């Protein structure tokens, strides 16, 4: 019998296809944000480790200042790609591409920065949280403290009630959808403001279990049939200016198994639970939204301190 991790690995697939990594190179928002964050975080002479290096582009950014970069990649196809690309680029010789499992690898020396871009909306599918917690334990056991700085430094996750169009040329299909963050989507109606449900600080211990329940104040009448998941990655904190360098993932809209009609002023309670790195269907299965108060009666059900997002 397969255990849970083996079953999930079969479902998720062991490796992200090569062409997916190539597409990430063409994502200008991602590339610009990571370049700026790495340029700010990596000071001259630093030692850097990248876990899950892919094409090696983030290790390349780090190598422009770092004295040494260890780029760890498990997919042999991507190891070859990274070595080929880095050989074409300035300071690529500062990067050592290591063919290894990031869950087992430790660098031969202490490092100053750890880059880990295994990021999916909601911290689903990819094992970033689990990997980074494993790395912290193994690193401290070998080198002691302090831990390196992690990039991204934190993740802020929010959720938003929607009315989502699921008609495809007359074919009704409630499916998981992804949207670019800077494009208007005429089939999407925002019914309430987003609410933050989790903040992960990678410089602190992070629990892989994410469970949340909160309330939203409906601003527009409609059919609540989906929830939009929003993930903002705080790549680097610029303390001297009190600002951050961020990267916003594509939005993910999950259909609700039981849609509800809502009016402006209604209060909707939303709940879900999942494990970071788990599958999208595992989140879908737990996702629930219920009207707990209509506009004319909501004052009777709002408990003191209840999280109602307006």
Describe this structure in words.
This protein is α/β, with parallel strands linked by helices and 310 residues long. It is built from seven helices and 18 strands. The chain has helices at 4-12, 18-25, 28-41, 57-63, 76-86, 128-143, 280-286; strands spanning 47-51, 68-73, 95-99, 113-115, 149-151, 154-164, 167-168, 171-172, 177-179, 188-190, 195-201, 209-217, 222-238, 243-248, 251-262, 267-275, 288-293, 308-309. The strands form four sheets. Strands 6, 9, 10, 11, 13, 14 and 15 form a seven-stranded antiparallel β-sheet that branches. Strands 3-2-1-4-5 form a five-stranded parallel β-sheet, with helices on one face. Helix 5 (76-86) links the parallel strand 2 and strand 3 (95-99). The model is unreliable at 9-13 (pLDDT under 50).
CATH class of the largest domain: Mainly Beta
CATH level 4 superfamily of the largest domain: Hnrnp arginine n-methyltransferase1
The low-confidence runs, each spanning 5 or more residues with pLDDT under 50, are 9-13
Main sheet, how many strands, which sense, barrel?
Answer: 7 strands, antiparallel
Q: Tell me the series of helices and strands, N- to C-terminal.
A: HHHEHEHEEHEEEEEEEEEEEEHEE
Question: Beta-strand percentage?
Answer: 35-45%
Count of DSSP E strands?
Answer: 18
> What's the structural domain tally?
2
Overall average pLDDT: 90
SS-derived structural category: alpha/beta
Helical content (DSSP H or I, runs of 4+): 10-25%
- By oligomeric state, this entry counts as single chain
> At the third CATH level, what is the topology name of the largest domain?
Hnrnp arginine n-methyltransferase1
Q: How many helical stretches?
A: 7
């Amino acid at each position: 019998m397969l255990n849970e991790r083996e079953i999930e690995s079969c479902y998720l697939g062991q490796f992200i296809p090569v062409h997916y990594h190539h597409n990430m190179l063409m994502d200008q928002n991602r590339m610009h944000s990571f370049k700026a964050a790495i340029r700010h975080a990596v000071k001259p002479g630093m030692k850097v480790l990248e876990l899950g290096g892919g094409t090696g582009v983030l290790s390349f950014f780090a190598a422009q200042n770092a004295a040494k970069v260890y780029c760890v990649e498990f997919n042999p196809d991507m190891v070859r790609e990274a070595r080929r690309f880095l050989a074409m680029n300035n300071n690529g010789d500062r990067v050592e591409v290591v063919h290894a499992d990031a869950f087992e690898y430790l660098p031969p020396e202490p490092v100053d920065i750890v880059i880990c871009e295994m990021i999916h909306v909601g911290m689903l599918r990819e094992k970033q949280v689990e990997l980074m917690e494993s790395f912290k334990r193994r690193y401290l056991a070998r080198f002691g403290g302090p831990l390196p700085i992690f990039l991204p430094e934190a993740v802020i996750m929010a959720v938003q009630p929607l009315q989502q169009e699921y008609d495809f040329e007359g074919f009704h299909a409630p499916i998981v959808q992804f949207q670019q963050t800077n494009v208007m989507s005429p089939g999407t109606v925002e019914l309430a403001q987003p609410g933050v449900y989790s903040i992960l600080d990678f410089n602190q211990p992070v629990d892989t279990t994410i469970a949340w329940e909160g309330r939203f104040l409906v601003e527009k009448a409609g059919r609540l049939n989906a929830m939009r998941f929003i993930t903002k990655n705080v790549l680097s904190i610029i303390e001297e200016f009190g600002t951050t360098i961020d990267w916003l993932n594509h939005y993910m809209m999950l259909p609700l198994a039981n849609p509800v009609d809502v009016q402006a002023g209604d209060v909707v309670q939303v709940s879900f639970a999942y494990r970071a790195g788990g599958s999208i269907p595992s989140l879908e299965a737990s996702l629930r939204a219920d009207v707990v108060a209509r506009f004319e009666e909501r004052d009777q059900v709002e408990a003191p301190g209840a999280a109602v997002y307006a």
